[in-house]
Specification:
It holds the Pfam family Sigma70_r2. Belongs to the sigma-70 factor family. ECF subfamily. This protein is mostly helical. The protein has two domains: 76 residues, Rna Polymerase Sigma Factor, Chain: A, CATH 1.10.1740; 49 residues, Winged helix-like DNA-binding domain superfamily/Winged helix DNA-binding domain (Arc Repressor Mutant, subunit A), CATH 1.10.10.10. Helix content is 77%, strand content 0%. The protein is built from eight helices and no strands. The chain is elongated.
């Protein structure tokens, strides 16, 4: 291992933890982006600084990390946010309003009236009460297989 590599290893061991904690705070807790910033900071240090001079690099590291966070923020603010075209359409189609809810309620009420009392009981216990097939069978006093066939 060369002297530069040993110096970089020492620098990493001494500064990476504090640098990472600092960047996490700057980024509001985003650990993944913080890892990227710390990695880029250390890479720039490796490429541009004389690691064997004995000069303290901590202030330089923290300043570069801060500048990278600021640059990233500026880039995100100038670039439009990417949107998946299908997501907004699905949201629009899945959102219901009061009219949809009222119509659905009326249709369900009518459909329930056409069911036998046995089927109504099973549907009520499983869907409206949130019971499992086994639990609904216990409440109704019938086997869970019968509950499954009636659902």
């Amino acid at each position: 291992m060369s002297a530069k590599e040993r110096a970089m290893r020492t620098l990493y061991d001494e500064q990476a933890g504090a640098l990472y904690a600092y960047v996490v705070r700057l980024l509001g807790g985003d650990r993944y982006r913080a890892e990227d910033v710390v990695q880029e900071t250390l890479l720039r240090c490796w490429r541009t600084q004389d690691l064997t001079s004995g000069q303290p690099l901590r202030p330089w590291l923290f300043r570069v990390a801060r500048n990278l966070v600021i640059d990233d923020y500026r880039l995100r603010m100038t670039r439009p946010q990417e949107v998946d075209g299908n997501v907004w359409l699905e949201d629009l189609l899945t959102k219901s309003d009061d009219v949809d809810w009222l119509l659905s309620s009326m249709l369900l009420k009518e459909a329930f009236q056409h069911l036998s009392s046995n089927h109504r009981e099973v549907l009520y216990e499983t869907y409206y009460s949130g019971r499992s097939m086994r639990e609904a069978g216990q409440v109704l006093g019938i086997p869970s297989g019968t509950v499954k066939s009636r659902v």
